[in-house]
Amino acid sequence: MWIFYALLSAVFAALVSLLVKLGLQNLDSNVGTMVRTAVVLLCTIGVVVVQRKTALVSSISMRDLAFLTASGVATALSWLFYFRALQSGTLAVVVALDKASLPIAILLGVFFLKEQLSMKDILAAVLISSGTLLFVLK
Fold it and tell me: pLDDT-derived band of residue 84, with 50, 70 and 90 as boundaries?
């Protein structure tokens, strides 16, 4: 089932890029990021409320809260830079460069989470990275 959710994530991520590019034509990128963030906050609160999981919020450990907070800061910075890049850059190139996060995330997983990589994993990361370079080096 996780593959289905991952594919849906990819479809919506593609829509995000297109909709952001269209929405920033006459708007400051930081203001656009703020609007998007507010919508994301309201949607996620709505999901938690509808699923009746609000009581779980009080059970978040300090360790988990610290990591989630750091992730939120990283997300905010990522979105601010992404919106700024999309505002003036070409959609395909900005999205391709954004996907450079994949090999970086893989390396972070190896170093910090001690995840093991197969030769297939390494080859896939190299091919994706090469594709990114092809978009950028036009």
Answer: very high
